[in-house]
Amino acid sequence: MQKPKLYVTREIFEDILKKLEQYYEIEVWDKYYPPPYEVLLEKAKQADALLTMLTDRIDANLLQQAKKLRIVAQMAVGFDNIDINTATKLGVYVTNTPGVLTEAVAELTWALILAVARRIVEADHFVRWGEWSRTKTGWHPLMMLGAELKGKVLGIIGLGRIGSRVAEIAVKGFGMKVIYYDVVRREDLEKQLGIEYRDLDTLLQEADIVSIHVPLTKETYHMINEEKLRKMKKGAILINTARGKVVDTEALIKALREGWIAGAGLDVFEEEPLPPHHPLTAFKNVVLVPHIGSATYETRHAMAELVAENLIAFYEGRVPPTLVNKDVVKVRPPGFK
User: Fold this and answer.
1) What percentage of the chain carries pLDDT values higher than 70?
2) Cα–Cα distance for residue pair 135/171, rounded to 1 Å
3) pLDDT of res. 1
4) Residue 202 in contact with residue 76, Cβ under 8 Å?
5) CA dist., res. 216 & res. 244, Å (int)
6) Structural domains of the chain, with CATH
7) Which of 20, 103, 241, 326 gives the lowest tally of CB atoms within 10 Å of its CB?
8) Catalytically annotated residues
9) pLDDT single digits (tens) 146-164
């Protein structure tokens, strides 16, 4: 049997590609930037399988024109770039890579919390750009004052895998009080970690640090808007390692400009990549990183391995281990036969 064609939208680890080559005829987009939609559409028309990233738009138009396509294996937890309903109707399997990102994203969340609270990036610039030298003093009682975390209140929005790990680190590592909001109450974790449930408005009013860990859905789009930002404490910090569109960027800029909150740490943005002169880049009290939540070797390789597991399982006629659209099995069995 001729190998099915797999189009890979970005360069990934060589050992993973070699593993997949046993099952698929592979073509890889070799540029650093993602393939333009027009290129992706043409490649999808010829492909039996796609290995995609969160930046690839897999919409109804593409799915309807890709007559041979049977599986979209996404190298990400999120899948808001894929039209799941259309894929299911057409019998196209969609998989993602949950679970393997938890530690990396939780650790980056804490890196951002500490960077903003202790003004790490601002202090680095203070030294690097000669401002410290110009003060003519090596130490001053009021120099670069930040905030301690012990005893402070961390408010977590979304207590899934990542949110619960962030909560655990807060309680066990920093001695913080943790409150959370989620559509599903987690009484097991409340008992295990000593954390407390709050409705969203109350959480925003009580928390010294608010950390967002929800997926992007119609319900969470601009979940943190001007109304919600006005409810936060004046000295509070907002952290977002989830999805950029969960936060209304214009409202956040206004909040920072007018001093409603003390600062922010952002790994994700409504517009990616963020333009170099974007208003957010002007704030010293905002730490910006380029969507690197999962950017450790260990995690990215584990993500690629899980993508390969999904693709190999499908090739062998098995339901992929992390199938997103589970109803698709009613439309078409897994495999290329």
Assistant:
1) 100
2) 38
3) 73
4) no
5) 8
6) 5-100+297-330 (3.40.50.720), 102-288 (3.40.50.720)
7) 326
8) 243, 272, 291
9) 999 999 999 999 999 999 9
